[in-house]
Design brief:
Helix content: 10-25%
Largest sheet: 9 strands, mixed
Number of helices: 8
Strand content: 25-35%
Number of strands: 18
Order of helices and strands: EEEHEEEHHEEEHHEEEEHEHEEEHE
Shape: globular
Distance between the termini: 16 Å
Structural class: alpha+beta
Bound molecules: pyridoxal-5'-phosphate, 2-OXO-4-methylpentanoic acid
Length: 357
């Protein structure tokens, strides 16, 4: 159990009056959680402070060699005014796994969940009321040693910030267009694809920017060796629905981020009676199956993106429409069930919800 000290912000900000225009990750709450790591001392001094800038030496290692990990989660407000988290221990475990790869001392899952819950509890008035909006939570760890040698840092900061947010895509729940990237890659065997570390995103920005210039919401990444197999999208995992009501997603291979929404959708899909499959998905086969009408729906899954229908894929200059262009039936059902559980509108048979008391 952490003993968290709290210093309240004496100059709290005005809360947004129009929650339908929050956007994603633009506005931050009044407080942040911090905890330090030092060699020989371990993680210590957990505290919640007024939100504000960090003063850091310009030679701090994270600025140069990106020894950094992060997570993404949300807190939801129910109609009864309760505040709840969705599978927070899964994010805590993923951070442990990412830390291991990035040579960062892990934070025990129970401490991670306690820290998130303590900050959200203090910021509960910031959890939006508007339909579909929530409090996005961004925990992260940075290496804080000062010096330019390339080594694992011996000191770190664990920080959590929160941002009241709406839909990740400007399109909201409306379908998005995705660009299949066949020049740049996001990950390769032995690298950090399965990690939630900032470096993965830094390396992806150029392809994302080029896709955006062409009017696409995000990039669909292929494997880093042959550029033949579908991996995932910039900020979400990909799912395809076949005409026989099978939901198929690329199998985890060390290069794909093991999404918590991905796992939840697979479990919900199975419970609803659909077939679910994790497979090697060859891009040419998938394109052929879309054209032949065998793939009837496609969507991405992610904490920020939730369940996001994809109605067009661009591959080697050709744009291929999926289904009839609007959100598919199974996609909609999965979206309704997942968000129903998250916002407490329907029962939580899986025991995924953790209430913030
Ligand atoms: N893949 C990538 C690259 C992501 O950034 C995300 C977002 O977190 C996901 C997949 C989906 O993961 P999760 O459902 O845990 O949010
Ligand atoms: C999330 O869905 O939580 C993410 O981290 C996506 C993010 C890169 C915007």
């Amino acid at each position: 159990m952490l003993e968290i000290k709290i210093e309240k912000n004496r100059q709290p900000k005005e809360k947004p009056t129009d929650e339908t225009r929050l956007g994603f990750g633009k506005l931050f709450t009044d407080h942040m959680f911090l905890m330090d790591y030092a060699e020989g001392q371990g993680w210590h001094d957990p505290r919640i402070l007024p939100y504000g800038p960090l003063a850091m030496d310009p030679a701090t290692t994270v600025f140069h060699y990106a020894q950094e990990v992060f997570e993404g989660m949300k807190a939801y407000r129910t109609a009864e005014g309760e505040i709840q988290l969705f599978r927070p221990e899964c994010n805590g475990q993923r951070m442990v796994d990412t830390c291991d790869r990035m040579c960062i001392p892990a934070i025990p899952v129970e401490d991670y969940v306690q820290a998130v819950a303590a900050l959200v509890d203090l910021e509960r008035d910031w959890v939006p009321h508007a339909d579909g909006a929530s409090l996005y939570i961004r925990p992260f760890i940075i290496g804080t040693d000062v010096g330019l040698g390339v080594h694992a840092s011996k000191s770190y900061k664990f920080i959590i910030i929160c941002s009241p947010s709406g839909a990740y895509y400007a399109e909201g729940i409306n379908p998005v267009r995705i660009y299949v990237e066949d020049e740049y890659i996001r990950a390769a065997p032995g690298l950090t694809g399965f990690c939630k570390c900032g470096g993965n995103y830094a390396a992806s920005i150029k392809a994302g920017a080029l896709a955006e210039e062409k009017g696409f919401a995000q990039v669909l990444w292929l494997d880093g060796v042959e550029q033949r197999y579908i991996e995932e999208v910039g900020a979400m995992n990909m799912m395809f629905v076949y005409e026989d009501q099978r939901i198929v997603t690329p199998a985890l291979n060390g290069s794909i981020l093991p999404g918590i929404t991905r796992d939840s959708v697979l479990k919900l899909g199975k419970q609803m009676g659909y077939g679910t499959e994790e497979a090697h998905m060859e891009i040419h086969d998938v394109i052929a199956d879309i054209k032949a009408g065998k793939i009837t729906e496609a969507f991405g899954t992610g904490t920020a993106a939730v369940v996001s229908p994809v109605n067009k894929i661009c591959f080697k200059g050709e744009e291929i429409g999926i289904g009839n262009g609007s959100i598919g039936k199974i996609t909609q059902k999965l979206y309704d069930t997942l968000t129903g559980i998250q916002f407490g509108k329907i029962d939580d048979p899986m025991g995924w919800i953790v209430k913030v008391k």
